[in-house]
Design goal:
The structure is a single chain. By secondary structure, this protein is of the alpha/beta class. It has one domain (32-268): Rossmann fold (3-Layer(aba) Sandwich), CATH 3.40.50.1820. The protein is 38% helix and 18% strand. It contains ten helices and ten strands. The strands form two sheets. It has an eight-stranded mixed beta sheet, with helices on both faces. The chain has a two-stranded parallel ribbon with strand order 1-5. Helix 5 (121-137) packs across helix 6 (152-163).
Length: 273
């Protein structure tokens, strides 16, 4: 009986080590789910946009799509998408934001949409910084740049806004940190020892000194709505929290997120002189 117990403990320990090792080895595959095919503007349904190249400081040329604003009084949204797909999946965002007269630059990260490189936390921060620099080079004042983060992109957006002047930060389904999400999903794994990409959004948002809008779905089963509330609580004024009670993780736009964002910008953003 004792031998059987020892064998069972050894097998259980071995299985645990195997699972932890697999999670550690494949963690970036769980976090990043890129569509690596290069998207087509016409197929995606955004014929008014034009393709452009964003050059990163570490030598990558990344695809971005841009629609200019209707005039120089309108903001330009730097849209940082979530962990899945590529920019070709987000034609709805282009159409919705452009109907306000806003410009949009939507970036595909490294490893997404046919871009070179492999996605990492540091890499995505570098990609967003390069897109911001591109807008500045195009003559867009910093105060006219609205940074919109979607899901995983909310952490990228907050990191960018903490280090640069922006007009506002719009967070669609934000999390406190990827580490916090991982702890909830894998409570049996020593996340703090093994996780490479942490995206500590809540630890950086106090450094953002621009209006912040937090948009969260009450039925979000990917990122707990309580995380959105915690992000809002940690942000500086002016800020607004918007909860769509029946929305999940991916359908906040259908619940009215774009109109909420437009109203927030109308209340809290001033056209640079």
């Amino acid at each position: 009986m004792k031998t059987v117990l020892i064998v069972a403990v050894v097998l259980a320990a071995g299985l645990y080590c195997l699972v932890v090792g697999l999670l550690t080895w494949q963690q970036r595959r769980f976090l990043y789910e890129p569509d690596t095919h290069r998207p087509d503007l016409l197929v995606a349904g955004v014929p008014d946009a034009s393709a452009m190249t964003v050059h990163t400081r570490d030598g990558l040329d990344l695809l971005a799509w841009m629609i200019p604003p209707t005039d120089d009084t309108q903001p330009v949204v730097l849209f940082l998408h979530g962990n899945g797909g590529n920019i070709g999946y987000r034609a709805h965002e282009f159409a919705a934001l452009h109907r306000f007269g806003w410009g949009i630059l939507m970036l595909d990260y490294r490893g997404y949409g046919g871009n070179p490189g492999t996605p990492t936390e540091t890499g995505l921060y570098e990609d967003a910084s390069a897109a911001y620099a591109t807008l500045r080079t195009l003559g867009i004042p910093a105060e006219r740049i609205l940074v919109w983060g979607e899901s995983l992109g909310t952490g990228v957006a907050v990191h960018l806004a903490a280090e640069n002047t922006v007009g506002a930060v719009l967070l669609e389904a934000p999390y406190t940190s990827i580490a916090a999400i991982a702890r909830k999903r894998f409570p049996f794994v020593p996340i703090d020892l093994l996780l490479r990409d942490r995206f500590d959004l809540i630890g950086r948002i106090a450094a953002v000194h621009a209006p912040v809008l937090v948009m969260t779905g009450g039925r979000d089963n990917v990122i707990p709505p309580a995380m959105g509330r915690a992000v809002f609580d940690a942000a500086n004024q002016p800020k607004r929290f918007w909860l769509a009670p029946e929305a999940g993780h991916n359908n906040l736009p259908d619940a009215g997120a774009f109109d909420v964002a437009r109203a927030f910008i109308a209340d809290h953003w001033k056209t640079p002189e």
